[in-house]
Amino acid sequence: MKTFNCSCPGQPSLFFESHTCNACGRVVGITDEFESVQPFDLNEEANYFVIEGVSDRAFKKCKNFAQYNACNGMVDVKLTKEEAATEAEAKNTEDNEYCFACRFNEVVPNLNVEAHVPLWQKMENAKRRALYTLKALPLPLNNNEEDAETGLTFEFTVDRNVKDHFVSKLPHHPDVMTGHNNGNITINLAEADDVARSKTKAAMGENYRTLLGHFRHELGHYYFDRLIANNPYKHERCKAYFGDDELDYQEALDQYYSNGGAPANWPENFISEYAIMHPWEDWAETWAHYMHIIDTLETAQSYGLLFDKNRGTNQTLSDLNLPQDDADDDISASFNRILNSWMEFSVVLNALNRSMGLQDAYPFVLTEPVRKKLSFIHHAVHNKTLLLSETPFE
Ligand SMILES: [Zn+2]
Ligand SMILES: [Zn+2]
Ligand SMILES: [Zn+2]
């Protein structure tokens, strides 16, 4: 994530989630380009917002921003039919009600239940952060209005009672399984409840379980379909790294649970215990880590926190200068630099957390086989599979 600043005196920091500037009180948001969080001035007479120095655009708050503070999206106010000077302009006069991020939503929880609202806000924050990194990478990212066949949609649904932290079942509500199905990502609202999520985390023996992690994992399944499954060459290469994903999924699942999880040596080859269950899960888990690494390093770099020990200066990973349209030709070397920085930086990150009496932020070990899988994903993201002709594991 990048750093953002207000334009008011002292240029205070704005966060990706900010709705207002604490110093000047102006509305703060992000346009459909989804690049930077910035202040907006209200033109009271016309009742729309403008950006300082931008004269040809007007904005209004996304409906979810205006009603629920569930996002900070600012959508363009277009000309009215009467104002349109050309036919092309006249065709394009319908304002979007929702912002870039909210237009991916297919189902949101019942917001008449007051306690759903703060949980849904957390859900939206995690979703928007996941989308931000995707958008900065050279990846296809369309909602199902833009692309009916392969567009992405989200469903945030509920099957249990928010009042008892999602213990009791709601009558007449089918079970909600968090997962991905053909472009549609479902996340159970219970995952946004700290009590419910911590319980599941402890019950599953996991050392990391976050909303953001869920989004990135399920998005991994989505991009497997978009980038790998439809391309026989890439699919073959992928199997060399992640194993044969044409294994029966249900059988693998049954076997995983009847064995009581993964064998003890799983950390040698997998990023998480769950990744061993099926090659699809290995891909999705590794994809999520790739996104965690890129986002966190981008944040560290934006705050000037990546140091080059040898030179005693701030390190700038040009490979991390998002947005990226196209990567370096020497993409393997560039990803090695990214991973080496991550190995160093994640130690600092964990040490900082321990100083605060918190658990490690990144309780994972990146072994050589896991690094290779991450590198495969980096190549897939940048559409550079040809360089992966060598045998991955020898
Ligand atoms: Zn300000
Ligand atoms: Zn929105
Ligand atoms: Zn999965």
Automatic annotation (TrEMBL):
It holds the Pfam family Zn_ribbon_DZR_6. Residues 4-112 form the Zinc-ribbon domain. This is Zinc-ribbon domain-containing protein.
